[in-house]
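Might you be able to check the backbone structure tokens below? Thank you kindly.
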Amino acid sequence: MLTGISALPTYETKTTTAKAEDKLGRDSFLKMFIAQMNNQDPLNPMDISQMSSQLAQYSSLEQLLNINSNLESIEGIQNSSNRYQSIDLIGKEVQADSSTLVLDNGKAANGMFYLGEAANCTVQIFDENGASIRKIDLGVLEPGNNEFEWDGFDNNKKLYKSGQFIYEVTAINNNNNLVSVDKTIKGVVTGINLNDKEPVIYVNSTPISMSQIMNVNMVKDTQI
């Protein structure tokens, strides 16, 4: 199980390179324009409308570069905010959209899903290659949040001790119609990886993103 916080990377090199390229674009435009002015034929000077057009192009270029720079700054602020907000989630209980099951050293994996109405439910579990390895009949379940447990055995009694798996839930109501299923995960945040652009949060060893989180709750006397 992952615990703690992975190192926070820096992105200064990329930003510095982008700014240098922007400056090169502006400088090249100005040098070209000045060279045209210096080398124009005195007897046939540059047309004023042509000059105005080039100056307008430069103005548009400058505005676009400034807008791009501002957007990059806003994105950087947002990314930093998300990173430090994610740190505050450690030790708290979250519920998030997820169809991932994680087996950790032989420990059973738990899945959760929401039903809008009563339905007969069947769970299919798939390995990393997309092959169906286990079918679990849950019977008729009531509306609301429902949970199931997978012991790690496949249909042929082969035991999977560790790894990530995907599950799907088929729910059919009394009218033999499919019922919509929202798959979620619920548990305490035990670790965060800040190496990627978006923080990766670990709940019961299951990786999720900030955008998947539906709600957050305080827990008492939680040991990580």
Summary: Confidence is low (pLDDT under 50) at residues 7-16.
